[in-house]
């Protein structure tokens, strides 16, 4: 078993489909059996055809053995789901059913109910009744009800129902995939950054995750004792020499290192990458080499590397390691990206994890560095911002740990994009590598040397920037900003970029403005952002993030998602319908963390 296969050895959670039915016999139930089961099969077909697991396999659904007309059949379905490792459930019905007798009562799993909109039987009446029961029992569920009436016996899924089913399933799978995994802290707190003060209560109660910790000296131990696959190391180093272009050294001449020193640093950062991966997921090859304990890994679905400064004042920085781990390919070819947070900012790591699980694409980690107003750009660069950038832009840039996918060299319909690894071509990999340089690290920041990624993100991509924050007395809150990457003329980019460290990757980002609140202006977005970092995902996934956050009971403190795309549990409406943001906070506080 390869290290890549080893990563998925535990499999993935499945989606449980619960066809519920009117339990009255002597003609009532009998007349509904086929239609009800066909609805369940139609939902399963939709989900398996549209959704994939992180390894590229189609999502699996498990349908209850029989329609559920009462508590005995509900219990039998629950037993089957537990044995089948179901992580979320969808209840479907075209008719009236006995609400509390047929409902899913597992409070730890996300759940939705689709009540068929038809006049022949009162599916909508059951939907209302069972959602009322969910609210009364404190087990929030998502209600799905099509806008248009369907004919009796129609097992077609309307477009609006499909959208909600897929949104719920994507988010529910993300919840289920995080559960019982670990966040691995490689080091501790970096430069006093609050996000790298790892809050184990948050991970345990809100995400259902463990926390694992190592000291960064574990890297030196594994390097010195050669606790890595030596054959893979040779392969990796050869690949790096052939594919990773080393850019110019911006350090003052008297601080530039020799070729011999740079070659040694390359060897170190490649070893660090192998070691970080093995620390996260384990590697059966290590057991063959006599390192049985190390072969197990830490069962980590996400991690963070402290780096600064205790490591980087003496050893090469972690930029190459973080970049390659976060990317969709390495020397072994295309593979699912890992989630590794710079400076062990665990909260930004969670934002990256959310984006990755919802999209199966690589994520960009960045400082939310600078707001450039139109007036400032014109003053400094003599250029008038236009198009999506006309109201100003945010300079997203960090020390080189953003996934290489962030170049935008992948294409969808000829346009820049980030794609799941199974859709990426070898030509796109080479284009991505060709658009990236590895610049000798700034000694001002990294006394131990190393290499920082340098690229410019292509404009025109829909993107969503997120940030998870912890607030004393309140708990976690999530911020969401949908927008677009934008292009600037090369000379304008150079002028602005050189005012900071030009050896780092840049994404110029223009958030979508709504004219109110934190999205009145681009300045307001910057002024309301909760921390120094942001996680950037391809696509406008704000609605999925809102659904996911509601499952975890994390309120949204700031977003620019149109209200018609927002999908939360039906009980949220019981906390008010006019001020949905306030209702979200009240509902999350009332129901509390999912795993508490």
UniProtKB/TrEMBL annotation:
The active site is at residues 343, 367. Mn(2+) binds at residues 343, 367, 533. Transmembrane segments: none annotated. Residues 181-360 form the L-fucose isomerase N-terminal-2 domain. GO terms for cellular component: cytoplasm. It comes from the Bacteria. It catalyses: L-fucose = L-fuculose. One of its GO terms (biological process) is L-fucose catabolic process. SUPFAM superfamilies: FucI/AraA C-terminal domain-like, FucI/AraA N-terminal and middle domains. GO terms for molecular function: arabinose isomerase activity; L-fucose isomerase activity; manganese ion binding. Its main location: cytoplasm. Keywords: Carbohydrate metabolism, Cytoplasm, Fucose metabolism, Isomerase, Manganese, Metal-binding. Pathway: Carbohydrate degradation; L-fucose degradation; L-lactaldehyde and glycerone phosphate from L-fucose: step 1/3. It is found in: Cytoplasm. Its EC number is 5.3.1.25. It is an enzyme of class 5 (isomerase). Its cofactor is Mn(2+). Residues 396-559 form the L-fucose isomerase C-terminal domain. Residues 13-180 form the L-fucose isomerase N-terminal-1 domain. InterPro entries: Fuc/Ara_isomerase_C, Fuc_iso_dom3_sf, Fuc_isomerase_C, Fucose_iso_dom1_sf, Fucose_iso_N1, Fucose_isomerase, Fucose_isomerase_dom2_sf, Fucose_isomerase_N/cen_sf. Belongs to the L-fucose isomerase family. Converts the aldose L-fucose into the corresponding ketose L-fuculose. This is L-fucose isomerase. The lineage of its organism: Bacteria, Bacillati, Bacillota, Bacilli, Bacillales.
